[in-house]
Each structure stands twice: as C-alpha cells, then as structure tokens.
Design goal:
Length: about 290
C-alpha cells in the first residue's frame, strides 16, 4: 500500500522481504537497514556496524557469536558529523555474523591465497567457532540470508548511487570500516591507523586518491592499498569510467577505542574525528566538482 499527499507525510511500502518506511525527509527505514538521505552525491556505507542477530539465528550460535565481537564498533558515532554536511548514510541493522555485506555473494575470496572469513562467517577473527556443533548454515540457509539481508542493502546502494549520478553527474561512495590493530590471523604486527583501499586504483579516479593521500593524517599512520584493498562493495560499485567513485577506509580501532575491549574512548575519538571529517569534506568537495 502506498499513501502520499499532504495528509500522509510518510510513505509505507510492503514487500515479501522488507517493510520500508520513507519519511518526509526522504530517509528510508527497513527491517534490515536505514538509509539517511543527503543533499550532495556522497554516500557513506557502514556494512559492519550492525549488531543485531535475528532470533531464529541466535539459537544456532555460540556465546562468542552473540557478543558480535568482530563488529566495526561505533562507526555511526564516529561519523555523526556527516548528516550536517548533507551526506547520505546507509547503516545495517544486523551483524556481519548473520551475513557479511562486504563479501561476494558467490563466496569468492577477495584475497586469493590469504585467510579470510566467509559470506556467512563460521569463525570469529580469532578462529573460534560461531555456531554450535552441527548448526552451521547450509547453502539453503545462506541463500535465504542473501535474499533477506544482503540483497536489499546492495540494492539500496545501487539505487542511491545511480540516482546521484543521474542528478549530479557524479557519485562517491565511502566504505567506513574499522578493525583491531592486531589480528594475527589476517596480518602480522600492528596495522597502520588509516588503511585506504581502492582495488589498486580501479575503484576511483586517480585524482581523488591523490587528494586523499595529500591530507595530513599525523600523528596517525596511513597507507593505500596495503593489507586492505577494498572489499566487495568498493570493488563492485566503484566505476570511475561511469563517474561513480568508491574507496574504503579500514580504521584501526586503537585510534578511538580501548583495545582489545569494545570500549569507546572519548578522548581518543575526539582526537581522530577531525581527521575523519577532513577526509569526508575532501570527498564531498570532489563529489560536487563539475
């Protein structure tokens, strides 16, 4: 059912997968994600910020999984300045342990020859099991989750970027991520603080990445296309030849948290947020260039 007009400031769409509410401001809220509408052609995606686990999946999981330990904690809090800048933001409800929105739906390893977690992860970053014995999701269950959680999120990104490109002639996507600074399973030693990924330059215009690399991130360390080169979302949606540009930032959690806990450190966050803001403002300026 669709209601519209002065008497109905909200539009409500129903489908077999989601109930979608579109507010008078154009924000979209569904059962699996929230999309806040902006004014400029820049979208920030936070695919690992969700912490929810549906009840039917909870019963199959270990206590470790229910604590959603590998969350990209507090992304919405770190980027809370973005709304005032007129930037679109998409945020999932559910944890990456339900399904990883930044993985290829066909299960293709984004880093051939290196260890990585699956589309529906069965182990945490420390290799501990996420499912009770005999309860791992089979292919039918994985495809159910793709339909319920993965596909709607990606469709929303696709539609938003296409609308931006049509309206403004350009669209920019920032994939906002974070991770512990030490995860021996995936990399040796300590991770740099700011880890940018552009699929080795394939997902965005070279001039944009040069602008990003010219920013002063000190006293934090930074690297481009090091251990992290951008996940599926960055690689799939970044199409600079179509004027759709994407890059990923994997931020070390030591810059704003008390590692290894998931405790937010106000003082650390206060120090790093200006660096994030200058990054977002640079992307916003590029997005609005004719």
């Amino acid at each position: 059912m669709i209601r519209h007009g002065k008497l109905y400031p909200q539009l409500v769409y129903t489908s077999s997968l989601n109930i979608i509410t579109v507010t008078a401001k154009g924000n979209k809220m569904t059962s699996s994600y929230t999309l806040s509408k902006g004014k400029i052609p820049l979208l920030i995606s936070m695919p690992h910020n969700g912490e929810g686990i549906p009840d039917d999946i909870k019963t199959t999981m270990t206590d470790k999984a229910l604590n959603v330990v590998d969350t990209d904690w507090y992304m919405d809090k770190l980027y809370d300045f973005a709304d005032e800048l007129g930037i679109y933001i998409i945020n999932p409800k559910y944890s990456r342990f339900v399904i990883d929105l930044n993985r290829d739906p066909d299960g293709v390893n984004l880093y051939p020859g290196q260890d990585t977690t699956e589309l529906c992860p069965t182990t945490a970053f420390d290799s501990s099991p996420l499912y009770l014995e005999g309860m791992k999701p089979d292919e039918t269950e994985i495809q159910r989750r793709v339909a319920l959680y993965w596909r709607p999120y990606h469709l929303a990104i696709k539609e938003t970027l296409n609308q931006m490109q049509q309206e403004f002639g350009k669209a920019v996507l920032l994939e906002a991520h974070s991770i512990l600074s030490h995860v021996p399973r995936f990399f040796e030693g300590q991770l740099p603080d700011f880890n940018f990924g552009t699929a080795n330059g394939a997902s965005c215009d070279e001039s944009l990445m040069k602008q990003v690399e010219s920013l002063d991130f000190s006293p934090y360390s930074s690297i481009s296309n090091g251990r992290f080169k951008g996940g599926f979302i960055t690689r799939h949606f970044g199409q600079p030849e179509q004027n759709i540009h994407a890059l990923q930032l994997e931020l070390s959690q030591r810059t704003y948290m008390n590692e290894p806990s998931n405790e937010y450190n106000i003082n650390k966050a206060y120090a790093v947020k200006p660096k994030l803001k200058q990054l977002v403002e640079t992307l916003a300026s590029f997005a609005q260039e004719k």
